[in-house]
Amino acid sequence: MTYILEVLDVHFSYPGGVVALRGAFLRVRKGEVVAVTGPNGCGKTTLLLIATGLLKPDKGRVLFDGTPLDEQLPQARKRIGLVFQNPDDQIFNSTVYDEIAFALRQLEIKEEEIAERVEEIAEKLGIDSILKRPPYRLSLGEKKKVALASILVYEPELVLLDEPTANLSYKTVSEVEYIISELQREGKTVVVASHDVNFIARVADTVYVLSAGRVIGFGEARKILLDKDLLSRAELAPPLIARVAELLFDKENPPPLTLEELAEKLHKHK
Ligand SMILES: Nc1ncnc2c1ncn2[C@@H]1O[C@H](COP(=O)(O)OP(=O)(O)O)[C@@H](O)[C@H]1O
Ligand SMILES: [Mg+2]
User: Fold this and answer.
1) How far is the CA of 121 from the centre of ligand 1 (A)?
2) 3-87+157-237, what's its fold?
3) E strands of the chain, at which residues?
4) Which of 2, 64, 103, 191 has its CA 20 to 30 A from that of 28?
5) Closest ligand 1 atom to the C-alpha of 48?
């Protein structure tokens, strides 16, 4: 089994003594979409920062493509992209264009090629009309797309998204879901940290549930997302569709998780 990312028995405390991770782990296979879920403060963001080498664990190991990540830095940076929850933590250039071009300029790619790649990704994300604008004046949805574009433009193999749907409109959430499915089609690997179980049900192959810095359950998305007891220990409930289905049908197997699956089931019951 090839794992592109392995975070093994990781412990981490922030300066000041807050213990954020207590032996957390995460194993991500090449090409899959893995969701890390759990309540606020359970350690999702900290886990992503450790998985990308931005924080060093107090104890434990991070392997990227089978060998320790810290021994592969800075080269491995080009192969990994982390999109922060709050785009203001990530965006610092004075125009959208410069923001998206930044990583490519670091790689000393020619300006003409940079222009092509920036325009291509901007078009894909529907932000090509705002390339000249200063990012600080954009809406949250636009900023999130700029942050996403600035990562996707250098085509990392492993993309980590922290709360990619938080506070976004339905349309932008759908666009984010589409981008994730495209990344997967291209053979990329995606890790999302999210407490949005409905979103996770639509995108994830594998789910990890964190509580107080520990993994309290992990496995195939369908199995984890229907495990009411496990989810409730993480202050979560199964996706809305699964809860509706439970009221509509007698414990049938397998219960639907997404709107499409529910529609199919209702169709059969007609
Ligand atoms: N920069 C920081 N300094 C001190 N404590 C922090 C910092 N960032 C997060 N924490 C604490 O670490 C724990 C885990 O936080 P975080 O990883 O952000 O969780 P999540 O992303 O699941 O909400 C929480 O108790 C949080 O308050
Ligand atoms: Mg977080």
Assistant:
1) 32
2) Rossmann fold (3.40.50)
3) 3-13, 19-29, 33-37, 59-64, 67-68, 80-83, 158-162, 189-193, 206-211, 214-220
4) 103
5) 17
* Ligand 1, atom nearest to 195 Cα: 22
The single-letter DSSP state of residue 256 is: P
How far, in Å, is the centroid of ligand 2 from the Cα of 251?
A: 34
Q: Rounded to the nearest whole angstrom, what is the distance from the C-alpha of residue 181 to the centroid of ligand 2?
A: 22
Tens place of pLDDT per residue across the chain (270 aa): 689 999 999 999 999 999 999 999 999 999 999 999 999 999 999 999 999 999 999 999 999 999 999 999 989 999 999 999 999 999 999 999 999 999 999 988 999 999 999 999 999 999 999 999 999 999 999 999 999 999 999 999 999 999 999 989 999 999 999 999 999 999 999 999 999 999 999 999 999 999 999 999 999 999 999 999 999 999 999 999 988 888 888 766 678 889 998 888 888 776
Q: Whose CA is nearest to atom 20 of ligand 1?
A: 41
In the structure, how many helices (H) and strands (E) does the chain have? Answer: 10, 10
- The answer, yes or no, to whether any atom of ligand 1 lies below 6 A from the CB of 41, is yes
